[in-house]
Amino acid sequence: MKQIQDMIKREEYPIRVLQFGEGNFLRAFVDQMVDEANGKNIFKGNIIAVKPRRGGNLTPFEEQDSFFTVYRRGKEKGNLISKPQIVSCVKKVLHCYENYEEFMSLADLPSLEFIISNTTEAGIVFQPEDQMEMTPPESFPGKVTQWLYRRFLHFSGSNNKGITFLPTELIENNGAELKNCILHYVKLWNLTGEFAHWIETACTFCSTLVDRIVTGSPDDASALFAELGYEDKLLDIAEPFGFWAIENKGNIAERFPLDQAGLPVLFTENIAPYRERKVRILNGAHTGTALAAYLAGAETVGQCMKDSLIRRYMEQLVKKELAQTVPLPEKEVADFVEDTFERFENPYLHHSLLSIALNSVSKWKARLLPSLKDYVKENKKLPSCILFSFAALLAFYSGKPVDGNRQIQIRDDKAVLDFFEMHRQDPPRELVLSAASQVSFWGEDLSAIPSFTERAGDYFDIICKEGMRKAMEKLLNSVQKEETV
Question: What is the set of domains in the chain, with CATH numbers?
Answer without folding.
Answer: 11-268 (3.40.50.720), 272-484 (1.10.1040.10)
